[in-house]
Amino acid sequence: MTKSKKTKIHKKVDGQLFQMNKTFSNLKMKQKDKITGWVFDEYKRYVTEHDKAPDLLADEQIVEAVLDKINEAQIWIPDGEIYDYYRRKKPQLQKRLDNEKVIKFKSYVSFYKSIVDQDRASVVICNLKHEIIYMNPAAVISYAKRGGDKLIGRSLLDCHNPESRDKIQQVVEWFAANESHNIVYTFHNEKQNKDVYMVALRDEGKLIGYYEKHEYRNVETMKLYDLW
């Protein structure tokens, strides 16, 4: 049995004939792409400006903004079709926005990593289990006799005596006690003329780990802007 074809209902407005029961699927592909882009842009604009997902009132504002663009582009589609389309696509819009944020963050990771890697002082990063999860090149060289990058995955506590282990644990507990507790001066090495610090690592305020930072007090011997 063949499916009956939907009857088109037309209305003449200002000399132009409009299909009153036109659906989103009836639009041309270019028109669909434009509207899809406008819907996402308006959704993204709202979430960016308000830092939250839109409520019902905001949904109407978003659709109205899209309808303005549709009218400017002289695309005919009943308003109700765009409201229905937005409601169907809203969950996907948030997923797309979240994916954009993840991709954007990942694109920055190489920048963050490079800052640490280019540091001439040792940087050793640990999680809250005290496992060494990263060592910058300077740290790998500095701790070569102890295993270099083979220390990654091992406990930082294994590299210290019982007294130092207790102090490390005390500092981590201090970090966890307050978000403003973020750096502790732990040691000065007279022989190498350097200071050693423990610095808290946080994700939106939540403590996720710490790193050991070494800063040398030696006067810089490099010439200013020595590019040759």
Automatic annotation (TrEMBL):
Residues 110-177 form the PAS domain. InterPro entries: PAS, PAS-like_dom_sf. Gene3D superfamilies: PAS domain. It comes from the Bacteria. This is PAS domain-containing protein. It comes from Roseburia intestinalis.
